[in-house]
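Quick one: structure tokens for this chain, please?
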Amino acid sequence: MSRPGALAALAGIALAASSAAQAVDYAAERAAIARYQDADQRLQDVGWRLVRGNRAFCPRVIPAIGLQLQDMMSYGAPGIARAALGLKGDFAVETAARGSPAALSGAFTRNREIALLERLDPNAWPKEEEEAMVWHRLVWAHDHIDAMLAEHGGITISFADGEAAHLVPVETCATRFELMGAGKKAVADGSRVVIGIDFPAFAYPEEEVFAALVAHELAHNVLGHDAWLDRNGRSRRHVRRTEREADRLIPWLLANAGYDPRGGVTFMTRWGKRHDAGFLKLRDHDGWDERAEFIAAELPQIADLMAREGRADWRTHFRREIDPAEGLEKPQAPR
């Protein structure tokens, strides 16, 4: 999991360029980065638990280690960010998802400086110091890690202090999670879940309620909604059907991750009452009360499956709202 564009939005919370006459409050800069990383840690912890717990049912799984990196060139003022964190280079640990190989190793502490990803030094990638808020190097770094895990079954990561750690991946559903430094939106694009740091669910203390938001977006990815809408059109009717299907899958994903599946109902009731007006104008979502009812209707079947089989196999038992094969080209019959 990684966040290609996530840190690019951090300029809004800190790290604005300072004039020569203005002293930089590095303590404030570090605090601003820490607040962002706390929110990102929560997202990555929940995301990891969901993709790990549902790996048996996802259409595509990948080897993963749960590591998030940060690149100083993604900040609004790279030099200030580098100095605030006490780094000489640009790459460092951002988060290690709770329970992941990266976290269990104990080596990937927040802001620990990275020297090598196997034999590749990401700090040597081209850059212009006057550039800021560029995210493509983070994409390269995480793509390189994914490639090493897929091709070699592991990766050795070296730190600037001379130590190194070798990580062996585990299987997860194929989705990356990204936190944006501003905004209240939550979206999924087929391969990523992107959530704005100002989304109201971050204020909910109950982890299963926040997890319901993440599960809704993950549901779009594992059910192939983005590709289906590309093939069949993004009419209000089509979008509404995919949104309803994603809502209904929430408790299945929560149950397999060890969360209370009723968290989906709680999330929709609490969040929907306050934020439903915008959706009602577009009518590409059901009303919050309808959404809560649709989620609740899944709970008896999930409870029965968990009691009998110890897991909620949504790949076999979940009722689809759409035909996932609709719009696909049919293979030509042999002549």
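Residues 1-9, 11-21, 278-282 have pLDDT under 50 and may be disordered.
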